[in-house]
Amino acid sequence: MATRMQQLRRPIVIVVALLLLALVLEVGFYLGQHAAFTGMGAAPVKYKAMQEELVTLQNTLRSRDSELAILRTRQEVDRQALELVRRELAGQKEEIAGLEEGLGFYRSLISPGEIAPGLSLRGIELKTGEKPRQYDYRIVVQQEARKHEQLKGTLEVVINGISQGQPVRFTLAELSEDFAGKGSALQFRYFQSIEGTLTLPDGFEPGVVSVEARTVKPHEFSIREDYPWQIEERFRHVGK
């Protein structure tokens, strides 16, 4: 009978021992945690609240980062839009200035006294070309008269400069395929714009451009002007 009772008590003792062990571990964990918090100068409840606050702040920071990224994107879009508007305004202003310049040119052709009577030159315009030592040119020949007759004639252009310390001259026909042949022919009633591209020889430094226009019909007439070699950003608006 005693042996039977001992067999029944053994599982109870084991269960009780396990419960006591679990309780000891729990108390030990609590005491260890408490000692750690005490060593850091923080109470467990306060520490938990701080953890929750940290999570909240981290979530808030992520939200603010997202908002900041959106604002930066909007700001960049606004900046690009503003730059586009500025460019459009600048382009419109340049276009208006060009139209006003062109109108002034045409007005000078038909208004007596605006330019010298008869045949005249507006000079040579030069701007940098696409290749080294390459330049785009334009020469405008015009006439002012109460009755604009059809003029026919020729244009001669000579570029004077220095090469290896010596004075050298080249005709425009030698430097520009656009001017060779019929490129020098004049035939107009109000004005004629002669345009093309020239290439300077290596070692040649241009100085003065001599332009001479001659008409043979309806009257023989000639005019000659010298212009300094001067590069511009763009051509003036005078039409074609």
Give an overview in words.
The structure is a single chain. With 240 residues, the chain is α+β, with helices and mostly antiparallel strands. It has a domain at 117-228: Immunoglobulin-like, CATH 2.60.40. It has three helices and eight strands, in the order H-H-E-E-E-E-H-E-E-E-E. The protein has helices at 2-40, 44-110, 172-175, and strands spanning 118-128, 134-144, 151-163, 166-171, 185-188, 191-199, 204-217, 221-228. Strands 3, 4, 5, 7 and 8 form a five-stranded antiparallel β-sheet that branches. It has a three-stranded antiparallel β-sheet with strand order 1-2-6, with helices on one face.
Ordered list of secondary-structure elements with their pairings:
Elements (H helix, E strand, L loop, with lengths): L1 H39 L3 H67 L7 E11 L5 E11 L6 E13 L2 E6 H4 L9 E4 L2 E9 L4 E14 L3 E8 L12
Antiparallel strand pairs: 1-2, 2-6, 3-4, 3-5, 3-7, 7-8
